[in-house]
Amino acid sequence: MSSRGWRWWRALSLRGRITLIATGLFAVAVICGAVITLFVVRLSLTHTLDAGAVKTGNDVATLVASNQVPNPVQATSGGVVGVQVVDAQNRVLRASAGGDFAVSMLSTDQLHRVRGGARIEITGVAAGTDEQLRVLGVPV
């Protein structure tokens, strides 16, 4: 950069330069803090929703094991949109109200991943919504 480009900087007093540097550093710190806060809140919300889904999954698994699962299945904690009970061949045995009783929300590959402990996000026709859904599985 030519010396003309820095003329405005040299025209500032020491106090002015320090004020500009401090303001810039403060702005960077605020932006970093906001990004970190958003990340932590999203992580906390996801953890809370997962805990509710695991609770519902465990409650439904207990009902399935005792052969007392109602039809339709009721979600037992907040944040759970739908519940499906599927067999080893990915056939729907039970579902929650408003859910699909005929077609599994997951493809066979997705079902294997969920049975392996993965938590996946799906969107589309199989889920019955255009919104993104987080899916997890609980073994019986």
Overall mean pLDDT stands at 88
| Order of secondary-structure elements | HHEEHEE
Strand order of the largest sheet: 1-2
Distance between the termini: 69 Å
Q: Strand portion, in percent?
A: 5-15%
Question: What does the main sheet amount to?
Answer: 2 strands, antiparallel
Helix share, percent? 40-55%
Count of runs of 4 or more consecutive helical residues: 3
Alpha-carbon Rg, integer: 26 Å
Q: Low-confidence stretches at least 5 residues in length (pLDDT < 50)?
A: none
What does the overall shape look like? elongated
Protein described:
46% of the residues lie in helices and 14% in strands. The mean pLDDT is 88. The chain is elongated, with a radius of gyration of 26 Å. The chain has 140 residues and is an alpha+beta fold. The chain has helices at 7-11, 14-65, 108-115; strands at residues 84-86, 92-95, 120-124, 129-135. The chain contains three helices and four strands. The strands form two sheets. Strands 1-2 form a two-stranded antiparallel ribbon. Strands 3-4 form a two-stranded antiparallel ribbon.
Features of the shown structure:
two-stranded antiparallel ribbon; 140 residues; alpha+beta; 3 helices; 4 strands; 14% strand; two-stranded antiparallel sheet
